[in-house]
Amino acid sequence: MRRFLAFAAVLPLLAACAEGGRSYAPTSPAPSAPAVTQAAAAADTPAEPASCSGRPTPAQTEGPYFKSGSPERASLLESGLPGGQLLLSGRVFDGQCRPLSGVVLDFWQADASGRYDNAGYRLRGHQSTTADGRYTLRTVIPGEYPGRTEHIHVKVAAPGKPVLTTQLYFPGVARNSSDSIFDPALLIRLDDGAPTRGGAFDFVIPN
User: Fold this and answer.
1) What is the pTM of this model?
2) In whole angstroms, what is the distance from residue 93 CA to residue 197 CA?
3) Across 80-95, average pLDDT
4) Phi/psi of residue 178, nearest 5 degrees
5) How far is residue 68's CA from residue 28's CA, in Å, rounded to a whole number?
6) Domains of the chain
7) Is beta strand 196-200 parallel, antiparallel or unpaired with respect to 189-190?
């Protein structure tokens, strides 16, 4: 009976707190399910990457091995293709760091031995960015060929803007220092994952 009277005495105080706009914090921990849901939502909608400075991505030479008409695909991997695998992802922004959708990225590269397929479309493909400017490419890490360091070619065609032609490079490659057109601004951010290494690069297209 005494416990009931004590609880009844507290009820008006709780009601007053609620009417005054103050929330009641329970002493027991909140259920874990909402926290998991929020984490999942954050993973689906990540914050704007710090790499977008608004500075345009440098253009570079096309080189001798570009071929138009590449197939539309986000994976360049094929059965029996040698070499370490790479999952490259990122976003395409304008000069004010706003994501650009419908941008066509056309990739081409050498295989792990430094050879380009000039007869077909092996290790060649194009794709379009999503509504929030994202792209993802599955491929292999290219090898070196005479006079060049490891690199991936790409053309970035945003609607209503000139096509950006450039090349992406890999950190820690000895030949970077002797490559005549290497630009550190075009380095992929690379992790040490295995068996597939993760890489990231964000493109900025001038307004």
Assistant:
1) 0.76
2) 24
3) 96
4) -105, 0
5) 63
6) 2-44 (no CATH), 85-205 (2.60.130.10)
7) antiparallel
